[in-house]
Amino acid sequence: MVVNNSTDRTEEFARQFADDESTPNTVVLNLENNPHKKAGALNHGLQWLRESVGGRLPNKVRHVLVMDADTELHPKFIERARNVLASDPELGGVSAACLGRTGLWRNPWQRFLLGMQIIEYGRAANVRYRQDVHTMSGAGSFYRSEALQGLLDWRGQVFWEDHRNLVEDYETTLALKESGWKITANQLCIAYTDLMPTLRELIQQRERWSRGTVDTLRRRGWTKFTWHSISTMILGLVGSAYILGWGSTQLARTALRGFSHYPLFSVLLLGFWVVYPALRVRNLGWKAMLVEALLLPELVYTVVRTHWLVSSIVKSYVTRVSAWK
């Protein structure tokens, strides 16, 4: 456990947790002056682990679990992740399927904001194991030690230590792919993570993720490992423009005139956009399906999503990433 640049009582609470008799053997490392954000903290922990096993991870370590402090793993996460890696020796890591914690709202706006994040996480978790994995999740990632040692041998560090690296998990995912390893995700390897309770915090978090991704893609360029992410981002912008333009227009026309003025094709198209989003979140239950079928909540959230995506792209081109002090 790495306490990273903490100015509060985090180290004290961490040591209390480690000293508890019911806690598995836990070592608390305190990193007081770390200029390299989370990447520096993770590398510090890996350095301690390497030294404790004689310098090379595969000597005595088969797997390495990385998780955030605001994350709770499913009780069978490690067992399931080990089984996934055992199924294919070319797999360098398996990422968690992240789900948002529920029941944290205090008012109707927070209920909407957190509810839409829960739907967003659930929809992403349902897709990640079926398609190419964009990134190993920082909330919960299970690595093969040989893969991490390969990165150490290649470039001297697993997580790139640079103040411009805002998404250490994504950059490391690309590095693993570039060094010949495959990456996957599994819908049964679940990590429950905290959500952003306010609009300001949500936008700050997503701008950091999106801006970091754009920065990394700009440095890497178009490759066989980045084309999918670049294409997805472009399609996301196009999709948002379509939803905001067509969706808001149709909702306004329906509110004013009802359905009688619609031709059959438009009615069928509107029906598709009611049913399809609902079916994509059926694993979250009927409430999530109802929210998606109503269209308006998703339309409002799309405005927020478009804002942070466009803002991130603009900032990537016109501003610098400040060092973490």
TrEMBL record:
Keyword Ligase annotated: no
Coiled-coil regions listed in the entry: none
Source organism superkingdom: Bacteria
Transmembrane feature ranges: 225-247, 259-279
Keywords: Glycosyltransferase, Membrane, Transferase, Transmembrane, Transmembrane helix
Signal peptide as annotated in the record: none
Family to which the UniProt record says this protein belongs: Belongs to the glycosyltransferase 2 family.
This protein's name: Glycosyltransferase 2-like domain-containing protein
